[in-house]
Structure formats: structure tokens, C-alpha cells
């Protein structure tokens, strides 16, 4: 069965700026009596265990406040992993059936340091919107400002399984030193996975997350392919055009299912329409090992500034992380 972590939302071309796996944090909530606020930004849609209870009641995989018996409503503040332009939200009430909030709204702010309990400079970017039980709510917004934090309001109380904040990472490249080496393929720097031929077991976006993979599901894994000479591939749009100086291909946790070999191709394009791209070899086909960090420097072929890379794996299997360390090149 395919991995259920794969993001099939209408905003999947964007980065979940709030994701815990990228570094997002839930800083504060008015109440999380039944279920902890930190669950809001965890991976997946949340699970339901029928017979699991705590000393406070039914265990729920989400953020759930107690039944409010006074005036007002509950809210929670999320610090985004990295500032960005927000394109849309997924407010997911999965498994919250008789205890979901009827409505929600979202405000945002852009500050370096925030006292979540007292900060007052908020802008509403999603007006009060109706919520259904046990459902994903994909809500698009039209706002081109840069935000660092969001505040989720629920009316009056209840449970939200997950909050996704989809958008485009903002990085002030004008302030970046061109002599500094940076991971051009890192999601937190603005890189994105924009396509692949197969991600049956786990999502391609895992490749460019921070840190090493936490398990075999935290990587990009394709199905077993029986076609002779098969090649699976994934395309990454770099955070900024540049020159790659060192490559890391990490097969962490992949032991009986790592690819036999891999190669990397590159191109330069001003957009993501790569149908007629002129792909050139950056890294020729290299042998891989199980559960291992493979570094390549001397093997990297000389190249001009590039904007996209295509990682090829032969014949199939799983890669945990791809790192492309290099220097940006401004046009």
C-alpha cells in the first residue's frame, strides 16, 4: 500500500511553512486540556486509537481545548519554520467528529521576536470560515506580504488535527554573501521538489527536509520496478541558481531497498517548464551503499550556474536526503 503521508493537497506545489519537520513551532495556546497544541504541525493527518484514554479523557492526535463555559474562544500561535508568502491553508479536523470547532479564522504577523501571549500586531488573512467534522479544509488566500507567525482562532472551542500553512519561502538573497557555501537544495532555503516519476512509498519532498531521516518513511522511495534498465527520477528546483561544489546522497535507514546506483543531471531555466530542458551531467553514475552518507566532490563535473537538478536512481529504491552544497550566482 502506498504511504499515506504523501501530500495530495491542491497546495502541494508549495512548502508547508509551519511543518515541525522543517522547524516550525507551536508557541502558545489559550487551552490544550485534552490534546497538546504541538500536535497541530506534526506529519500526517493524525491517527485515531479507539481505546486510548488519558487521565483527562479521550486521547486525540491533534490540538483540543476543553468545552468553554465562559465568553470568548480559543487560539494558538505557530512560529513558521521560515518566513514566507502564504498561499493557502489546510485546517484539518480529521477524527474530530462531535468535538470540532464550527468556525476558524487565521491572523498573521512578521516579527523577529514574539511574545505569543501578549503580541497584538496581527493582520487577519483568513476570515472566519465554517468547518466540517472529520474533514480537510483547503482555503486559498490572496496576500503577497511576508509573514513569520500565524494565529489560529477556533470558535468557540474544540479540536483541530493539523494545520498546514502552504507558501513560498522568503530569503533575502541580496544580503547573502556569494562566497558562502549553502545547501542549494534545502527546503528551508527555498528549494522545492517539482516532479518525479514515482513516489509510491514516500513523498519526494522528504528529500530536502532538514536533518537526517528519522525512519524509512522519511525519505523518497519508489516501488519495485521489474522493467529492465529502469531509472526513477526526481527534479529539485534550487533555492537560488548557483554552482554546486559538494553533493551528499544519504540512504539513511534504507538497507534492503536502497538504489544500486545514482546520477545527477542539471539545467538552467527561468521557469519550471523543463520539457525542452538541456540536461547536462553533474555527477556521473555512482555506486551506492545501504544506510550510508555518500559525499561527492572530486566527481562533480565542471558546470555553469544551474537552477534545477534531476536525481536519477537505478533501478529503483529509496533515498533519505539530497544535499547540494554550493554558492549562489546572481545574474
Characterization of this structure:
This protein has 331 residues and is mainly β. It folds into 2 domains: 15-169, Jelly Rolls (Sandwich), CATH 2.60.120.260; 178-328, Galactose-binding domain-like (Jelly Rolls), CATH 2.60.120.260. Helices cover 0% and strands 42% of the residues. The strands form 5 sheets. Strands 1, 2, 6, 7, 8, 9, 10 and 12 form an 8-stranded antiparallel sheet that branches. Strands 13, 14, 16, 17, 18, 19, 20 and 22 form an 8-stranded antiparallel sheet that branches. The protein has a two-stranded antiparallel sheet with strand order 3-4. β3 and β4 form a beta hairpin. The chain is globular and about 65 Å long. The N and C termini lie far apart (45 Å). The relative contact order is 0.16.
